Automatic annotation (TrEMBL), chain A:
Protein name in UniProt: F-box domain-containing protein
Short name of any one Pfam family annotated for the protein: F-box
InterPro entries membership: F-box-like_dom_sf, F-box_dom, SCF_F-box_component
Matches recorded under PANTHER family: BNACNNG10540D PROTEIN (PTHR31672), F-BOX PROTEIN CPR30-LIKE (PTHR31672:SF13)
Domain of life, source organism: Eukaryota
CDD domains: F-box_AtFBW1-like
Start and end residues of each F-box domain: 34-80
Automatic annotation (TrEMBL), chain B:
Source species: Anisodus tanguticus
Domain SKP1 component POZ: 14-71
Biased composition (Basic and acidic residues): 147-160
Stated name of the protein: SKP1-like protein
Superkingdom: Eukaryota
Length: 189, 167
């Protein structure tokens, strides 16, 4: 019995050591939830959530303030990118300009979006007028992201901003991307 | 059981005993238990009785079932393992959470992967309310705050019905 106890302690120590090795310094949140039942510990929630597609994660920001914090954390976004690049095989859909919206100039119905969806579109060139097709793992829909730059007729210069819109095959519609920080960022990974 | 094709250094199969938090003991071949990183390290240190204070008998039985099946993995039974995995993740969320905690505690990477992915797939299309219930999280937003967060990504809340069920 004595021996068993000692072994147990040693085992705990071993585990604790492994935990510390695994522990990311960014992960320092407390346990989730505080109601009657037993909520899943934070470190396990952190193992599950990054495997979700972006659309679900953005929806789940509404779950609680803690989840909101987790989901918008930059190291979490990196982790999510890792999983989404692992789980989905981007497929190219179109490479020409056929089927683009005629009215390029003003976004009629701006939809806020974070940059992660754009990054999801696999590697993209930062050139203007570039198309990239990808499969949205959440809806199993083919989508095309379209990056554009515009010419400013007043200053006679290129507007130093990248614009992007996403086409959904199933909805047959375009959505203008308007990132929170006002800039489309294109990640290569 | 039938994993005799790989040649072991010694003819004898080394046995290990796992002891659950309820005090039940399970004797297993070392080659099976080695998938568990934590136990592997202990075996390397020469232990043969491993007390698992955080894993109850019910969960440990499932974990052993998993390790036994995966120890049989070869090139030719991939389909069988796949079907096994599919069945394995079919339990309730509470059971899955129990298992994921144990898999994490024991550092069984393959099982961690399987469970986390399956839980993620299962909640993917759930409503916010259902996710709160499943994860036992209380909503700490005021209605106004929640509305504001919804408005940040309105489109993510549109596009069809979300699943309200808790299983």
């Amino acid at each position: 019995m004595e021996n068993g106890k000692w072994l147990g302690l040693l085992f705990e120590l071993r585990n604790a050591k492994l935990e510390i090795e695994k522990c990311d310094e960014d992960v320092k949140w407390q346990e989730l939830g505080n109601n009657g039942g037993r909520p899943l510990p934070e470190d396990l929630v952190m193992e599950i959530l990054p495997r979700l597609p972006v659309e679900s994660l953005l929806r789940f920001k509404c779950v609680s303030k803690k989840w909101y914090e987790i989901i918008k954390n930059s190291s979490f976004i990196k982790e999510q990118l890792y999983w989404s690049s692992k789980n989905t095989t981007p497929r190219i859909l179109i490479y020409d300009h056929a089927g683009c919206p005629d009215d390029d100039d003003s976004p009629p119905n701006p939809n806020p979006i974070t940059r992660i969806l754009v990054s999801n579109a696999a590697c993209v060139h930062k050139n203007s007028d570039y198309f990239q097709g990808f499969r949205d793992p959440m809806t199993d829909d083919y989508k095309v992201v379209w990056f554009r730059t515009f010419w400013d007729v007043i200053t006679h210069d290129i507007i130093p901003r990248l614009f992007a819109a996403v086409y959904s095959c199933s909805r047959d519609s375009w959505r203008i991307l308007q990132p929170e920080n006002g800039e489309i960022l294109v990640d290569r990974y | 059981m039938a994993s005799s094709s790989s040649s072991s250094k010694t003819g004898l199969k080394k046995m290990l005993t796992l002891k659950s938090s309820d005090g039940d003991e399970f004797e297993l071949e070392e080659s099976i238990v080695i998938q568990c990183q934590t136990i592997k390290h202990m075996v390397e240190d020469g232990f043969s009785l491993i007390p698992l204070q955080n894993v109850d008998t019910k969960t440990l039985t499932k974990i052993i079932e998993y390790m036994k099946k995966h120890a049989e993995k070869t090139e030719s039974n991939k389909e069988e393992i796949k079907n096994f995995n599919k069945e394995f993740v079919k339990g309730s969320f509470d059971d899955q959470f129990e298992l994921v905690s144990a898999a994490n505690y024991l550092h069984i990477n393959g099982l961690m992967d399987l469970l986390c992915q399956s839980i993620a797939d299962r909640i993917n299309n759930k409503s916010v309310r259902a996710v709160r219930e499943i994860f036992n999280i209380s909503n700490d937003y005021t209605p106004d705050e929640e509305e504001k967060v919804r408005d940040e990504h309105k489109w993510a809340h549109e596009g069809g019905e979300f699943d309200e069920s808790l299983d």
